[in-house]
Write a sequence for this structure.
C-alpha cells in the first residue's frame, strides 16, 4: 500500500479499510478553544504542535505553575494574556468564553482533581491516560461530567492511528483466523532521578501507569474480550532510584475464550511491540508499536505501509467531532475507568503474589 497521506485519508473516510472508526479528517463544525493544563514534555512536544494542525480545535489557553514558560507559549501559539492561568486561579477559567475544552496533561495522581474542577467550570474535558489513580476517582470524574453536562474523553491517541486501526480490523474480521496467543510490551531504560513516575503520589505505580496502559489496551482491542483473571509480578533492579514504586511489572491476562495475553512495562529493560498469533498466521507491530511515529507492522507475510500521521491532531479533531454530536466517541471516560480497574488488578496480583479475579468492568473490550 504505497499511497499518499491524502489518498489514505480519502480511502479511510470512504470506509475502504472496512472500519467504522475512521481516523480521517473530521467534517467541518464548531472550532473548539482548548486550554492545556500542564506544560511538560508531552504538552510541549506533541499536544501544542498538534493544535497547530487540528481542523476542529485551536489552543486558546494555558495553565501552568512555571511562569518562565508563559512568554514562549504565548508567542508561539498566540495565547491572549487573559487566557493564561496558574493552578491557584484555575477555577476562574469558568468565565472564559474563549475556552471550551480543558486538556489535563498532569501526572496521573492529579488527573481526578483537575478533571473534576474543569467539569465543574462547565468545560469539556480531555484527560491524559491513565484516567486517574483509582476506580473511585474515575467514578467521581464521570459523575462530575454527567452532572455538569460536559464531555469526558481520555487521551488514547492510538485509536486514531492507521496501524492500530488496521490491527483492530484484522482482529474484528478474523482475517487471520481465530486468535491463539497475544503479547505486547512498552518499556525503555530510564535513569531520570526527577521523573514524576518515581513518586507514588504523582505516578501511582511507576511505569505501569506511565507505559502499561498501552499494552493493556492493545490486548483488549486485539482479543476483543475483557479478561477474567490476571497474574502479575513486579521487579525493581534499582531500589535506590525506585524507592516508592516498582521499576516495572509483568502480567498475564486470561480471557473467557481461552486466549492468554502477556505484557510488561518497565524502566529496567526495553520493549515496544505487539504480537498476535492466529490460526492462519501472525499479525502485529514489530517496530515502535506504541510510538508517536515510525511504527511498522505486518499481517501474515505482508508488511503494512501507511503514511505518517499526527496521532494527537487526529485524536483531538475526532473528540471535537464527538462533542458536536453529543457522543461519547472512541475513548470515553468509561473506557478509561475500565483500564484503571485492570491496572489496579495487576498491582494487586503483584503485591499479593496471587492471581486476581476480574469482575464486570462496566465497559466492553471494543
Amino acid at each position: 500500500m504505497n499511497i499518499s497521506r491524502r489518498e489514505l485519508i480519502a480511502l479511510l473516510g470512504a470506509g475502504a479499510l472496512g472500519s467504522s472508526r475512521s481516523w480521517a479528517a473530521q467534517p467541518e463544525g464548531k472550532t473548539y478553544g482548548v486550554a492545556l493544563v500542564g506544560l511538560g514534555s508531552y504538552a510541549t512536544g506533541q499536544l501544542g504542535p498538534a493544535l497547530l494542525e487540528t481542523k476542529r480545535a485551536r489552543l486558546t489557553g494555558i495553565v501552568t505553575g512555571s511562569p518562565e514558560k508563559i512568554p514562549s507559549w504565548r508567542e508561539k501559539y498566540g495565547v491572549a494574556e487573559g487566557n493564561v492561568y496558574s493552578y491557584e486561579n484555575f477555577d476562574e477559567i469558568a468565565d472564559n468564553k474563549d475556552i471550551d475544552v480543558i486538556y489535563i496533561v498532569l501526572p496521573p495522581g492529579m488527573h481526578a482533581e483537575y478533571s473534576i474542577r474543569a467539569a465543574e467550570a462547565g468545560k469539556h474535558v480531555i484527560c491524559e491516560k491513565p484516567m486517574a489513580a483509582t476506580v473511585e476517582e474515575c467514578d467521581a470524574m464521570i459523575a462530575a461530567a454527567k452532572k455538569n453536562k460536559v464531555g469526558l474523553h481520555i487521551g488514547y491517541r492510538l485509536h486514531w492511528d492507521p496501524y492500530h486501526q488496521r490491527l483492530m480490523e484484522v482482529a474484528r474480521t478474523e482475517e487471520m483466523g481465530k486468535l491463539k496467543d497475544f503479547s505486547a510490551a512498552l518499556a525503555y531504560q530510564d535513569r531520570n532521578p526527577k521523573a514524576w513516575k518515581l513518586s507514588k503520589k504523582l505516578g501511582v505505580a511507576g511505569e505501569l501507569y506511565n507505559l502499561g496502559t498501552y499494552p493493556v489496551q492493545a490486548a483488549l482491542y486485539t482479543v476483543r474480550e475483557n479478561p477474567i483473571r490476571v497474574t502479575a509480578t513486579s521487579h525493581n533492579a534499582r531500589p535506590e532510584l525506585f524507592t516508592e514504586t516498582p521499576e516495572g511489572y509483568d502480567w498475564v491476562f486470561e480471557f473467557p475464550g481461552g486466549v492468554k495475553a502477556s505484557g510488561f512495562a518497565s524502566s529496567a529493560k526495553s520493549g515496544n511491540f505487539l504480537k498476535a498469533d492466529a490460526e492462519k498466521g501472525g499479525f502485529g507491530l514489530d517496530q515502535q508499536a506504541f510510538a508517536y511515529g515510525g511504527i511498522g507492522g505486518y499481517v501474515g507475510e505482508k508488511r503494512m505501509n501507511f503514511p505518517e500521521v499526527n496521532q494527537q491532531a487526529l485524536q483531538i479533531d475526532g473528540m471535537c467531532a464527538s462533542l458536536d454530536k453529543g457522543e461519547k466517541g472512541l475513548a470515553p471516560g468509561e473506557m478509561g475507568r475500565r483500564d484503571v480497574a485492570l491496572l489496579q488488578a495487576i498491582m494487586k496480583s503483584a503485591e499479593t503474589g496471587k492471581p486476581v479475579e476480574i469482575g464486570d468492568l462496566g465497559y466492553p473490550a471494543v
Observations:
- The first strand starts at residue 32 and ends at 37.
- Residues 251 and 293 are 26 Å apart (CA to CA).
- DSSP finds eleven helices and 15 strands in the chain.
- The two ends are 26 Å apart (CA to CA).
